[in-house]
Amino acid sequence: MAILLISISLLLGMVMATLIGGRVHESHHEHH
Questions:
Q1: Over the stretch 1-32, which tens digit does the pLDDT of each residue have?
Q2: Which residues contact 28 (CB under 8 A, 6 or more apart)?
Q3: Rounded CA gap, 32 and 14, in Å?
Q4: What is the SS3 string spanning 16-31?
Q5: Distance of CA 13 to CAs 10, 17, 26, 32, Å?
Q6: Predicted TM-score (pTM) above 0.70
Q7: What is the pLDDT, as a whole number, of residue 4?
Q8: Distance set, CA 7 to CA 20, 22, 24, 27 (Å)
């Protein structure tokens, strides 16, 4: 059970980081 929770947490963290990073990069480029 613990392993499952950790796996989900890691996945969520990676997804969130990717979304945030992508948004920051996009907004920065679109702000031209």
A1: 899 999 999 999 999 999 988 877 776 666 66
A2: none
A3: 28
A4: HHHHHHHHHHHHHHHC
A5: 5, 6, 20, 29
A6: no
A7: 96
A8: 20, 22, 26, 30
